[in-house]
Structure formats: C-alpha cells, structure tokens
Write a structure and sequence with these properties.
single chain; about 400 residues; alpha+beta; 2 domains; 10-stranded antiparallel beta sheet; 9-stranded antiparallel beta sheet; 3 helices; about 20% helix
Length: about 400
C-alpha cells in the first residue's frame, strides 16, 4: 500500500473534533467575559464624570474588540481543524471499513535460500524468540535436522477454531492467513511464481466478532515482489493495484461470537467459459458458530490471461525449495490485522489444522512438518504454539511467541 496508516480514523476524528469544540468553547467564553465586563462598565457610567466617561468608553471599546477577535478566532479554528482532519486522514486506518488495497498485507521479508542453524537444530530463520511472530502452522519443506523435502498440491485447506479470543481495544484486530506459493503460472506469455493469500480479517466489538474475507496475489518471479509485479491480465472479482504490484479482492463480511471456526481454501484449475484454458486459482471460505454454519462458498476465482500457443496447466502449489525471493512455504497463521502492523492479543485459545490435496479428489493430508511461526508481512505477540502430534493439530494459547518444530 502507498501509505503506512497507523491511526484509527474514528479515533482521529474524535480527537480533532474534541479540540475544535474546546477551541470554540474557549473563544465563546472569552466573548462572554468581555460582554459581562462591558455591561459592568455601563452600570458604573451613572457616576457620569468626564474622566469616568472617557475611561469607560476606552474600556468598552477594548472589550468590544476582544469580543470581536475572540469570535473570529474561534470561528477560524473550525476550518483549520477541519483541514487538519482531511490531511491527517491519509495516515489513518478506518476500522472495519478498509478498502481491499488497504487490507492487503505486504509480502514477507526474504529469508534467503537456506535455513539457519540454531544450536543443534535448524530453523527457517525468519522469526526469533526476541521478536514477535506470525504464529500457527507453517511447512517450509525443511526439518529441524536440516533435511529438506518437497511436494505439490492442487487444493489447500486451513481450519482454525477459536474458543477464546480477546483483542486489545488499541488494535484494529487480527487476521488468519492461508499463504501459499504457486509455481509455473502462465500470465501473458511468461511463466511466473506467485504468492497467494486467502485472508480472514477479524475485529472485535464486545462479544461480537466481524470477519471479512479477502485475498491477494503477488508476483514472486523475481527477487523483488514489487517488480515485475502484476501485469493486470487477470480476471476475478478484484483488480490489480494502481501501482501494478498485486491483485486484491474483498469478499463477504459476516459476524459471529465465540466459539467460531474459520475454514480457508485455495484450489487450482483450468478455466472454462470466458476463461477457457486459462490457469485459475479459486478462493473459498466457511464460517461456523459452534455447529451452525453461518456462511460458505467461493468468493473469487482468479484466472491469468495468457498468449497462445503455450501449453497451459493448472497452477501448482509447492512446498519446499525457494522461488528466489523466499521459501516455497505453506502456512496457516494468526497475525495482526493488516499492512505490516505489529499487533497482539490479550488472550487466545484455538486449534489449527493445515492440509493439502494433490489429486483433485478432496482427500486431504496433513502437512508433513509444521513450524510454529509463519512467513508474512505482519507480526503478533501474545500467542504461544503447541501441538497434538497424534492428529497433527496446532494448539494456540496465550503466552510468549515461540519458534519450534511442532511435528
């Protein structure tokens, strides 16, 4: 995004309007005091001496000027503070009313090509115990002994169930992100590697949670995700950003209360109809309150336009290795609301799953290995990860961020 917006617009408007009201009140108070003094002087004028008349005239004249200047000053402050509100609005972030290109998280910081050794074990090296992390489940294609592996998939699914969640009022909210890397995507006449995100942005008002589903796609073909960027030759419910850096689309907005479950899915396919033979990625969601389904479905299908006569295949989600900018990783992470923020939670309790299907048959398998931290542009404090290794389930609780191999 073009601006780093770090102040809640509603809070900003409240501050500016409060200062405006105070300024006007002070001006009017001075005016009233001046008017009272003038009235007092007129009452004294019955003494009717020439000296007193001259003195009272002088006093009344001065306080009349004070009255006029006070009113003018207080009225001048109104447009001044209004102008301040307009200018400062460029640096704020409106809670639960963000446009899709404000919601889109920036790409992750590059890892380099290999894991780093920490003591007697290996770790991906993005998050350390000294920093906040995006917490959850991430498969980097590397174990804590340094051995590597890779696999491919055409369907991805993350499942997260919250039984406790308290977001500090100072924070805009948190987000769940299903992040993946799709290789060999044909856009125009060029094959590329793309970072794909299916996101659920979560904000809290009392016991009510607002969930907004949205997506974005970045071009990771080069070492810089801002270049070559997206060419604009994509079809979907959204558009490519004004700088051509990424594609983004805002989906449905739903509300719920605890406990609630969010399922995010990404599938690859070959397009049909007006997108015949084009490589496509579909974004799906489910929202549950307990055993009651509140909503589900596909909210966007993004297809890449290409030039004949290239042979087109469905995009391939890959785990393992590197794309030149970062790891080819698959993750289901809890992190801050958006836009490179550093957020936190006061308390949390959730279970997390991360699965893939490589046969288009809906038979999902658990990721082979899972690290507790993820790779994205945002970070979050207050979440500690553990695991039930029997059913390959992550367990998020309140605590200090940690970087461990869960299984």
């Amino acid at each position: 995004m073009g601006w780093l917006r770090i102040v809640d617009c509603q809070l900003l408007a409240l501050i500016v309007n409060t200062f405006s009201a105070v300024a006007v009140a002070i001006g009017m108070l001075l005016a009233l005091l001046a008017d009272e003094r003038c009235s007092f002087n007129q009452n004294i004028s019955i003494l009717d001496t020439s000296i007193q008349r001259d003195f009272l005239y002088y006093e009344s004249y001065n306080y009349s000027i004070l009255f006029e200047r006070s009113v003018k000053s207080s009225l001048f402050l109104i447009p001044a503070f209004a102008l301040m509100l307009v200018v400062s609005s460029f640096f704020c972030i409106p809670v639960r009313q963000l446009g899709v290109f404000d919601m889109i998280p920036p790409p992750p910081s590059p890892h380099g090509l290999f894991a780093q050794q920490q003591g007697n074990s290996f770790a991906p090296g993005y998050c350390t115990t000294a920093t906040e992390c995006s917490m959850g489940l991430t498969d980097y294609g590397i174990t804590n002994t340094g051995s590597t592996y890779n696999y491919y998939a055409y369907m991805l699914e993350s499942t997260t169930t919250f039984t406790k969640l308290l977001i500090p009022a100072i924070d805009s909210g948190i987000s769940l992100q299903l992040n993946s890397v799709a290789l060999n995507v044909l856009e125009n006449s060029n094959y590329g590697d793309y970072w794909v995100q299916n996101v659920a942005a979560i904000s809290q008002t009392g016991s009510v949670y607002t969930i907004e589903f949205l997506n974005n796609i970045w071009n990771f073909t080069g070492n810089n995700p801002y270049s070559p960027g997206m060419s604009g030759s994509v079809w979907g419910c959204g558009t490519v950003g004004s700088r051509g850096t990424f594609y983004g689309c805002g989906g449905p907005v739903l509300t719920t209360s605890l406990p609630f479950k969010i399922v995010l899915e990404e599938t690859s396919s070959i397009g049909t109809g007006s997108q015949t033979s084009q490589p496509c990625v579909t974004f799906l969601y489910q929202l549950w309150h307990g055993t009651k389904e509140l909503g589900h479905g596909s909210y966007d299908k993004v297809c890449f336009e290409y030039s004949y006569p290239q042979v087109v295949n469905a995009p391939t989600f890959v785990v393992g290795g590197s794309n030149g900018y970062t790891y080819n990783a698959l993750s289901n992470v809890i992190t801050s609301y958006c836009c490179g923020q550093i957020g936190g939670v006061s308390s949390a309790a959730a279970t997390m799953k991360l699965q893939y299907d490589y046969g288009f048959n809906g038979h999902f398998s658990n990721v082979l290995h899972a690290w507790s931290e993820g790779d994205t542009g945002e970070t979050l404090s207050g979440v500690h990860m553990g695991a039930n290794t029997i059913n390959h389930q992550g367990i998020a609780t309140t605590g200090t961020d940690n970087q461990v191999e869960l299984w």
